[in-house]
Amino acid sequence: MVRRRLASKPLAQVRELLRSAFPCPDGTVTLPVAGAAGRVTAKPVCSLLTVPETDIAARDGFAVESGATPGTGGGSPVPLKNPHRVNTGNAIPTGYDAVVMIEDVVEKDGNWYTDNPVLPGEHIHPAGSEIRRGELILPAEHRIRPCDIGALLSCGIAMVDVREVKVGLIPTGSELVPAGECPGPGGAVESNTAASAALLGEAGATCTRHAIVHDDPVLLRQAITDGIRENDLLLISAGSSAGTRDFTAAIIGDLGEVLVHGIAIKPGEPAIIGRVDGKPIIGLPGYPIAALTAVRELALPLLAAWGFHPRPAERLRARLDRTITADPGYDEFVLLTVSRAGDRYTATPLRRGGGTQMALVRANAYLHVPAGTSSICEGTVIEALLTGPYREADEAFEPAPECSVRRTALPVKDCQ
């Protein structure tokens, strides 16, 4: 197969290409309301019930005819006529139009008295005051919040139609083994697709991790063919560079079209953007930091353009404790450890080119160094994008003492 490496394209240009080349898929799925938080409504959702169905008490007390309480007040309590005891939420009997709160009545000689007059409708929730049958609860394209769940259920909605985008993730590499198995010399446990699926799932995508594909172009071709048929977006982990076992770009080109091979981002430059059967394929570098950077900076913006938004990263202003040098021809994403120093925050750039997974664990933030920037000097106040909750910036990463000696052992039979 002939491999042709395209010149690296600017990140902004690639994002715009993704948005313009791939219209939003129209998939929907019906889910139980109780499990639909974070999903986006596919169509308007209207109430099946009138809530409340009848007039109900808004306070504990006595339902009365409001006309039977005039002239009260001024320290001259009057007896309630035909009072009906109600609790908050009870239906108001026919012929009653107000509630006297229990705090405003006193008992005397077996009768109830009040010196606070009530007006018609006082302390009553009228029928339909919450919502009426057929009225709109949520519009289309609304991201369902936890607080919406209760309203939907209260209005008789048990199932809801939400938009769905299916993302397939194919891990490649003969050196990979599934989680739970012990890799041999030169091997590795497959983890890139798991981390990527977790990131994409936060945006509401339905992710499917496909089986590991060994470095065989015939097997990879079949996996891509199946994956693009079953999904709206396909991510292929590893095989995007120019090594002797990197077949991804050539196979995408045979099946469809390679739009971009090489993006001016660090890490993640070897990423691929392709199109097969009108659907997008993103080829990810195999290096874990580069893979997650490509997912965050390419796949997530595409999902956002389709209406699937992850929770925005929290931002924090911190002072760099060392100078960052960068290639002005690239958008660079530098991992940081942000920690509190007195009443300020300090950002320490992690050494680039070091460990992979543990660098991601130790970092609690990252810095986008835009193209055209050659350096950011020590002492500069930057805006760090946090990879976790704000409070974690107050907690420097320090392994517990037992971490230096404890190991989670795989079953012996898997390591032999």
TrEMBL record:
GO CC, alphabetical: cytosol
Alphabetized InterPro entries for the sequence: MoaB/Mog-like_dom_sf, MoaB/Mog_dom, MoeA-like, MoeA_C_domain_IV, MoeA_C_domain_IV_sf, MoeA_linker/N, MoeA_linker/N_sf
GO biological process: Mo-molybdopterin cofactor biosynthetic process
Keyword vocabulary terms for this entry: Molybdenum cofactor biosynthesis
Region (Disordered): 64-86
Entry-linked SMART domains: MoCF_biosynth
Membrane spanning stretches: none
GO molecular function terms listed in the Swiss-Prot or TrEMBL record: molybdopterin molybdotransferase activity
Pathway assigned in UniProt: Cofactor biosynthesis; molybdopterin biosynthesis
Pfam families per UniProt: MoCF_biosynth (PF00994), MoeA_C (PF03454), MoeA_N (PF03453)
Domain MoaB/Mog, first and last residues per copy: 168-305
Domain of life where this protein originates: Archaea
PANTHER family documented for this protein: MOLYBDOPTERIN BIOSYNTHESIS PROTEIN, MOLYBDOPTERIN MOLYBDENUMTRANSFERASE
Protein name as it appears in the record: Molybdenum cofactor biosynthesis protein
Species the sequence originates in: Methanoculleus sediminis
